[in-house]
Write a structure and sequence with these properties.
By secondary structure, this protein is an alpha/beta fold. The chain is 47% helix and 18% strand. The chain has 2 domains: 42 residues, no CATH class; 209 residues, Alpha-Beta Complex (Spore Coat Polysaccharide Biosynthesis Protein SpsA, Chain A).
């Protein structure tokens, strides 16, 4: 395994440097090869990930946002599921917060980085790992976290860098691949999205509403020109329905048993 981190002129640059300095030995022992790329300017989500992918040497790439918590076994779970079939193009996990069918409203956001919080996430991850949901084919996957073969990423070019800074670059990749490969949700692997500042809406906190609105609709127009306005409309309806309504995401597959287990644990 190897770990490649790109700090794209983030506001937490000093904290990132200190984190890798403090934990360098542990990270090297765990991953073997650790690469940290500190940049003076923000070149955008797409280019940052593309540059990191080009430096990777493994068979499988795990694309991951910076605001994720990977429960034990989740990285291996995604990779194993991807390699299970050559028909699988991208494999994404179940999560608590994203604009995709992958969302399952089973865990609230992180309020504090304490042991109890992470134990609750690990308990949820064990529950999902033991479920019988299996794999599900999806119309599209969120780019916050997914597994993809390096060979396929190189062939399709991973993210189109014209989708600068964010929005629609992940959906564009899915649409470019979906005619040749299946887009899969690994129903037995959970990855928690979002720290104390939240998950999917972090861009709206970092930049102005005007900047985000212009970027969202500008990238949406680029997506529509490439894949068609009907595809754009369907994608907008799908991702917003999945985010806001349980009947359109994975919540209903787990909720009843999870609530029963949680109630039993609380009673004990």
């Amino acid at each position: 395994m190897e770990l490649i981190c790109v700090d794209d002129a983030s506001p937490l640059r000093n904290e990132t440097i200190e984190c890798f300095r403090r934990h360098n030995e542990r990270l090297s022992a765990r991953f073997g090869r650790v690469v940290v790329d500190y940049r003076d300017t923000n070149v955008g989500f797409a280019k940052g990930y593309n540059d990191a992918a080009n430096r990777a040497s493994g068979e499988v790439l795990i694309v991951a946002n910076s605001d994720l918590y990977f429960p034990c076994g989740s990285v291996r779970g995604l990779a194993d599921t991807l390699l299970r079939s050559e028909a699988y193009g991208i494999v994404g996990p179940v999560t608590n917060d994203c604009y995709s069918i992958q969302k399952a409203d089973l865990c609230s956001g992180i309020r504090d980085y304490d042991a109890d919080t992470f134990e609750h996430i690990e308990t949820l991850a064990r529950f999902i790992r033991g479920s019988d949901v299996g794999t599900l084919e999806a119309p599209c996957l969120s780019g916050f976290c997914f597994a993809i073969r390096s060979e396929i990423a190189g062939r399709f070019g991973l993210f189109d860098e014209r989708f600068a800074r964010a929005y629609f670059e992940d959906f564009d990749l899915c649409y470019r691949m979906k005619n040749e490969f299946k887009l899969i949700v690994d129903g037995s692997t959970y990855v928690h999205h979002g720290g104390v500042q939240g998950g999917s809406n972090s861009l709206w906190r970092q930049y102005s509403a005007l900047w985000n609105t212009r970027r969202f609709f500008g990238n949406g127009l680029l997506f529509a020109r490439r894949h068609g306005y009907v595809a754009w409309l369907k994608q907008m309806l799908h991702q917003n329905a999945a985010y806001h309504f349980k009947r359109y995401n994975l919540t209903q597959l787990y909720e009843k048993e999870w609530l029963e287990q949680s109630s039993g644990d609380s009673a004990q």
